């Protein structure tokens, strides 16, 4: 599952390659990703033909492309979905619209270092698992075969739809890459993520602490804080010194904020090197994970030594998800035994 830094790399690439581009036509090779489109595949194609893509925006792991008619193309990439830009001229990274998310003083993520999106120059092929292709109106610099945005999805868990934008509840910008205070209607329930300048930290900590569930489970709840997946939850808990089985309501405000700040910090560092690329789909032939994975402290390291204290890292299941932790650096409460659903026994 791509995590927030991977999705942000994708968003930045889409913004660079698609902003200002007009959709000339839509090819639907498989209608299944459009199952949530009002009006079905024909309405999807009709809503996009002739429209100009005005940017690329993201909240948590949810992506959308605002359109010039005030609506948006929203994309759920699921476990295996990828948006691939093909045949466009590659503008300089310095010309990227929207503020880069990288920490000041660091260069923006190098998209050539990521596995997604693959910025392929050749439109001649229909890749395996190609479901939807948006053909872009030609522009000087495009490859001779033309330019397109492809939805490629092996497992068919992702989808796309053209949807209305609705005002954000707090009046702040919709997300990274969206200066407008608007989000797609189907993203309105998604909380702001840890890299969002408009995140209200005190409210987020309070929201988390109102839950009796394990903090590991709460970190993964996109309605409390969005964008955290299994990798960054485990990393943030290790950096924050809290075991994932602790009931969030039993932790101090300081401890919860420490874990959230640490999780955000890990995601920022991963973003600076183009994401973790840890998903099996993105692992290369030797099984070598992405660049950032080499600096992970706990995720994928059960049975190995803690980088801080040398104790052997352990893995267990909390709320149906694996949790790797250090028995010495991460304190667990005496009453912290959990059911598989992440609730205290
Ligand atoms: Zn340790």
UniProtKB/TrEMBL annotation:
Cofactor field: Zn(2+)
Entry's EC annotation: 3.2.2.23, 4.2.99.18
Pfam families xrefs: Fapy_DNA_glyco, H2TH, zf-FPG_IleRS
Listed GO MF terms: 8-oxo-7,8-dihydroguanine DNA N-glycosylase activity; class I DNA-(apurinic or apyrimidinic site) endonuclease activity; damaged DNA binding; double-stranded DNA binding; zinc ion binding
Spans annotated as Disordered: 94-114
Signal peptide annotation: none
PROSITE patterns in alphabetical order: FPG_CAT, ZF_FPG_2
Transport keyword on record: no
Domain Formamidopyrimidine-DNA glycosylase catalytic stretches: 2-158
Stored SMART domains: Fapy_DNA_glyco (SM00898), H2TH (SM01232)
Reactions listed under catalytic activity: Hydrolysis of DNA containing ring-opened 7-methylguanine residues, releasing 2,6-diamino-4-hydroxy-5-(N-methyl)formamidopyrimidine; 2'-deoxyribonucleotide-(2'-deoxyribose 5'-phosphate)-2'-deoxyribonucleotide-DNA = a 3'-end 2'-deoxyribonucleotide-(2,3-dehydro-2,3-deoxyribose 5'-phosphate)-DNA + a 5'-end 5'-phospho-2'-deoxyribonucleoside-DNA + H(+)
Keywords: DNA damage, DNA repair, DNA-binding, Glycosidase, Hydrolase, Lyase, Metal-binding, Multifunctional enzyme, Zinc, Zinc-finger
Record-annotated FPG-type domain positions: 297-331
Keyword Zinc-finger: yes
GO BP terms, alphabetized: base-excision repair; response to oxidative stress
The protein's assembly and partners: Monomer.
Family: Belongs to the FPG family.
The protein's name: Bifunctional DNA-formamidopyrimidine glycosylase/DNA-(Apurinic or apyrimidinic site) lyase
Lineage start: Bacteria, Bacillati, Actinomycetota, Actinomycetes, Actinomycetales
